[in-house]
Amino acid sequence: MVKLIELTSGEFKKLAKLIYEKTGIHLPDSKATLLGNRLRRRLRALNLDSFDAYHKLLRVKASYEEELPHFLSAVTTNETYFFRNTNLWTFIQKKWIPEIVESRRKKPKPTVRIWSAASSSGEEAYSAGICLREALPNFAMWNVSIVGSDISDRVLERARAGVYGEYAVARMPKPLLSKWFTKKDEEYALKKDVQKLVTFKFHNLRDAMTPGNFDLVFLRNVLMYFDTEMKRKVLKNVAEAVAPGGYLVIGDVDPVRNDKELSAIVAMDYQGPNLYRKPQRVAVGAGESK
Ligand SMILES: C[S@@+](CC[C@H](N)C(=O)[O-])C[C@H]1O[C@@H](n2cnc3c(N)ncnc32)[C@H](O)[C@@H]1O
To answer: Using CA atoms, how far apart are residues 158 and 194, in angstroms rounded to an integer?
Structure first.
């Protein structure tokens, strides 16, 4: 029988510290078994006989760089699916898109920009793409840019492929499923018309986003993995990326609402559950910002 490699509490602490340094993800002691199970596969692949040896390898620059994508993929939780949280998508289709259309009414080539921060395998970013395809009048006239970003290369690869299993699409409206996907065996391939609207890139939320002036930013189901210091950093970076008048959607567990310090960092108007709006820029003689 193959002997199971144990993760000692000392090894767990060292790895948890490294994970925190690299990702901002805080792993409490209760996650030791989960981490051991997830990393054991990497130990086998690398032919290592202890977690200590794995930690040493991650401390050497050259091997760290090679191992990093696997390490990050093993330690992140990537649960997501299309049209997660129905109320949000109703808001986007019924309120946000009509507002965008109205505000860009006089533009010959209007622009709309969305960022799915911590996008995982792309379901959130593509759901936004489907909504825009459905609801923007004269779609060809629009300049649509959607960015999905994550620290796990494994999920980014899946996002770029745009092919999903039953679980990912099970809760989306059936007419949209048949309209925007092609079914191949047990899989659903997103049609190019939506796929081409989204670009995926590696981005760590602890770093500032390249300026995007996004009209809508999703930051869902990721803040709960961070401690207070990391939440501060992330919210600052994300808030800076929202355009004046743009919206920020925070995940179901919203740490901002009742926290004075985090609310001050976000500095946006609360619009209802999980939703914030950045005030419009006030400038003398200012017209539309786009
Ligand atoms: C549970 S998924 C959320 C997916 C999607 N936003 C949703 O709500 O359905 C969380 C994602 O956050 C990513 N993540 C964790 N720490 C991150 C960090 N520091 N920077 C960027 N992404 C991170 C993980 O790789 C994972 O794909």
So the answer is: 15
Domain ranges of the chain: 9-75, 86-277
Dmax (CA) for the chain in angstroms is 77
Tokens encoding 263: 């609310």
Q: 């533009």: which residue's tokens?
A: 107
Rounded to whole angstroms, the Cα distance separating 32 from 210 reads: 35
**Atom of ligand 1 at shortest range from CA of 206:** 19
Measured distance CA(173)–CA(94) in Å, rounded: 15
pLDDT at position 290 over 60? no
pTM of the model: 0.92
- At residue 178, φ and ψ (nearest 5 deg) are -75, -25
The CATH code that applies to domain 9-75 is 1.10.155.10
| Any ligand 1 atom below 6 A from CB of 152 | yes
Rounded distance from Cα 144 to ligand 1 centre (Å): 23
